[in-house]
Every structure is written in C-alpha cells, then in structure tokens.
Amino acid sequence: MQPLAVSAYTATSALGHGLESHVAALSATRGGLRPNDFSSAPLACWIGRVEGVEDAALPAAHAVWECRNNRLAWLGLRQDGFLERALDIRQRYGAARVALVLGTSTASIGATEEAYRRLDDDGHMPPDLRRPLIHAPHSLAGFVAEALGLEGPCLTVSTACSSSAKVFASAERLIRLGLVDAAVVGGVDTLCDSVLFGFNALELVSPDPCRPFDQARRGISIGEAAGFALLERTGMAPHAPRLLGYGESSDAHHMSTPHPEGLGAELALRDALARANLHADQVDYINLHGTASLKNDEVEAALVTRSFPTTTRASSTKGFTGHTLGAAGILEAAFALQAIEHGLVPANLGCTTPDAACGPQFAWEVEQRSVDVAVSNSFGFGGNNACLVFGRAPA
C-alpha cells in the first residue's frame, strides 16, 4: 500500500494525560495499575484507572452525550494539541472530506448499567438518563463527530480488543478510494461493571497486577484509555511517522480462546508485512498483545519466536496500563510510534520468570535503541486479529 502520514497522535491512560507522561513512565518502568476502587460491588483485582475522568465535564453544547466514556474521550481529545490539529484538518480539507473511525468494545454501557440500577417503581429509567444517544454502540463516534464538527463518513468499529487497531485499516481504505482526504482514528473504553465482572466470570481476571508472559501469570488486569491519531497522505506531512501496512484476519476458532497454533494471528501478521513490503528481519520492535491470559501469551510468544530473528525486540505494555479493551489498539499504536520517535523499547513489566515459549526476542528490561519499524499486535475475542506496521519518515 501507499504509506500514510500519522500527522498527530495522543494517548491518555493510567500512565497519565498525553504522550509526555507515557514516555516518562515507560522510560522509568513505572506502571499505572492500582487496587480496584471502581466496581459497584467488591472485586479483588487491579485496574488501570485514568485520573480526572470524573472532573472532565463535557461542554454545555454537547451535554446530551454526557457519560463517563465520552468524558474520557473529551479528556483525551484535549491532550498534545490534538483537538486543535483535528480542527485544522477540518479547515484544510472541509468537514465532509474528513472521516472519523473509532473503536470501542463497550461504548457508554456504563451509563446504561447505571440507568438499570436506578429504575423506578414502574421500571423506567431515571429522567437524567433518558437519553437514547448514550445507550447505543455509536455513542462515542456520534459525540466526537459533533465535537469536531465532522461531516464525512463516521464509523464505529467494535471487534473486541482489536477495535481501535482495525480503525487504521478502515481509514486507509477510505482515503485510498478517494472518499476522503484525511481521517481521525482512535478508540475509547472506560471501566464498567460489565467488563470487570464479565471477564471475572470467564476466570480471566488476575487478583494481582497482571504479569504478561510470566510462567505464573494469572490473568488480565483491566484498564481504560483514550487515544486518537490523524491520518493523511504523506505529501501533506512529509516528516511525520508512517502507517506502512496493516493486516486483518478472523479465525473464529473460539469465542474467547485464540487458535492453538496462532493461525489467525499469523495471517494478520503476514498480511501486514506484505502490505508494507517488508520482511520480518526489518522489524525493530513489536508491541505485543500480551494480555497475561494463559493461552494468549503462550500462542503469541510462539508466533514471535518462530517468525522473527533475535535482533527484533518484543514486549507487552499491558503491565503498565492494564488491558484497555477496545482502546488497546490505539494506545499500543501510540507506544509503537513513541518507540520510533524516542528510540525506546519498553520493558515487559510484571514478568520475573518468562514462559518457556518466549524466545530471545523478548525485552524484559527497558532498552534504548534505534527503532525504524515497529509492529503493534491486537488479537480480539472470536479471532478478530489486527497487526499494524509503523515506520520512520524517510530522511
């Protein structure tokens, strides 16, 4: 494919607001997980909670969209000058020529949970939550489109943990086909009872901070995050990092367990490298999906070990942020882009005794080294897989 420029990007997570706080935390190997203080009933686990979401009120003009997920989206949009850059893009191309493609797995379901907890004697939602717009999967994209004043194609991608990785693929197709000139992509997911207790019911939540790729790992830690990026043709941002390729697959092996040989993940990886016209030995860093669940880590470790040379570095950053679900793709794309920008290979936080499937590619400690090409893996439930390839702009 023809590369696209990532002309701006931002991330907000348990590590802080904006890119600077994330670089600082990754450089110092300082995680953001803390004991669960969120759920409506006791649940002994650790979470990656974003500070300040409760105080991030929406502008009065957008009050109809009020909910915790959209507050996090608004908080995220205002980091790193991203809001201003997005408005500049709208001015440059026109509101109808900028696409909006956002990923989320739960959207504003937290507001729906609250509404059901507060049903009146007649079974009606409380008056303050009788707002149909927030009780729908498209709540996030609808709010951001209104906040940015965008009138182009507006898509919600909800493919579990790969949601906000697949947005890059959808945006590239829209630009390549000439339907738009640029795209705002991203994803937002907030903590809510549905994911905390749902994943716990699947026996996938660890009572301790998650330990990706550790022999003694006990499951995931759930986090929340918001992230956004601008994609446009490289001629408009010649010095910006590039989206070089993407790969997608759906193996549909099992509702919540990856294919035992990682076939779907490998198809997505091969597709991404082929689209980028690269070989595996040209990849400097891989941000792994690495959830710390038993099967995911085993399968992904084997895939990396058999597919990449020892010169490639690989690590999971979920020990820093928790698994941010539908926002994981955009958050970890930001980590891949930061690896290129700062020559920073993050540590695989939480692992003390590596799984036997892990090869010499794994970076257990933070490393400073040149990164020209970085891959980000996102493997969702049901075999919804996506791999992204990013690269440094040509000199």
Give the structure's gist in a few sentences.
With 395 residues, the protein is α/β, with parallel strands linked by helices. It contains eleven helices and 16 strands.
How are the secondary structure elements laid out?
Blueprint: E1 4-13, E2 16-17, H1 19-27, E3 34-35, E4 46-48, H2 68-77, H3 82-93, E5 98-103, H4 109-117, H5 139-148, E6 154-157, H6 163-176, E7 182-189, H7 193-201, E8 222-223, E9 225-233, E10 242-250, H8 263-276, E11 285-288, H9 294-307, E12 313-316, H10 318-321, H11 328-342, E13 344-345, E14 367-368, E15 373-380, E16 384-391
Parallel strand pairs: 4-8, 5-6, 5-7, 11-12, 11-15
Antiparallel strand pairs: 1-2, 1-9, 1-10, 3-4, 7-9, 10-16, 13-14, 15-16
Pfam families: ketoacyl-synt (PF00109), Ketoacyl-synt_C (PF02801)
Domain Ketosynthase family 3 (KS3): 1-392
InterPro entries: Beta-ketoacyl_synthase, Ketoacyl_synth_AS, Ketoacyl_synth_C, Ketoacyl_synth_N, PKS_Beta-ketoAc_synthase_dom, Thiolase-like
Describe this structure in words.
There is one protein chain. The chain has 395 residues and is an alpha/beta fold. 30% of the residues lie in helices and 21% in strands. The chain is globular and about 60 Å long. 57% of the residues are buried. It is built from 11 helices and 16 strands. It has helices spanning 19-27, 68-77, 82-93, 109-117, 139-148, 163-176, 193-201, 263-276, 294-307, 318-321, 328-342; strands spanning 4-13, 16-17, 34-35, 46-48, 98-103, 154-157, 182-189, 222-223, 225-233, 242-250, 285-288, 313-316, 344-345, 367-368, 373-380, 384-391. The strands form 3 sheets. Strands 1, 2, 5, 6, 7, 9, 10, 11, 12, 15 and 16 form an 11-stranded mixed beta sheet that branches. It has a 3-stranded mixed beta sheet with strand order 3-4-8, with no helix packed on it. It has a single domain (4-389), classed as Peroxisomal Thiolase, Chain A, domain 1, CATH 3.40.47. Helix 2 (68-77) runs parallel beside helix 5 and helix 6 (163-176) crosses helix 11 (328-342). Residues 1-392 form the Ketosynthase family 3 (KS3) domain. One of its GO terms (cellular component) is cytosol. InterPro entries: Beta-ketoacyl_synthase, Ketoacyl_synth_AS, Ketoacyl_synth_C, Ketoacyl_synth_N, PKS_Beta-ketoAc_synthase_dom, Thiolase-like. One of its GO terms (biological process) is fatty acid biosynthetic process. One of its GO terms (molecular function) is 3-oxoacyl-[acyl-carrier-protein] synthase activity.
